[in-house]
Write a structure and sequence with these properties.
Blueprint (H helix, E strand, L loop, with lengths): L2 E7 L4 E6 L12 E10 L4 E5 L15 E4 L7 E5 L8 E2 H4 L1 E4 L1
Parallel strand pairs: 4-6, 5-8
Antiparallel strand pairs: 1-2, 1-3, 3-4, 6-7
């Protein structure tokens, strides 16, 4: 069954789509550094990322300085929410430089 999933690559690409497996979002010899699930919050103009990829684990945001995001997402605030009581939300849009492609 397909679900709204995302990954980030070592080259800083953010990819998302309705796929069965996170690996379906990889292109060529991409190296994935984590992934999870997404949902749009149109009321707050946010893209909310959460959970983790079964195959690749949680996104390792600390490995990136810049995130390359599809142009269609311009204007959305991107937030990753951890599913534990230890981490605060990671405001991707504030913490990383965003480049649109």
């Amino acid at each position: 069954m397909e679900a709204p999933k995302f990954i980030i690559t070592m080259d800083g690409y953010f990819r998302m789509g309705m796929v069965k497996r996170h690996e379906d979002l990889l292109i060529g010899d991409d190296v994935c550094i984590g992934g999870g699930y997404y949902q749009f919050d149109w009321t707050s103009n946010r893209l909310i990322l959460d959970r983790k990829s079964y195959d690749f684990g949680r996104p390792r945001w600390h490995l990136l300085e810049m995130l390359k995001v599809p142009e269609q997402l311009r204007g959305l605030r991107i937030i990753y929410t951890y599913d534990d009581d230890f981490h605060e939300d990671f405001i991707v849009s504030d913490e990383l430089k965003i480049e649109y492609y």
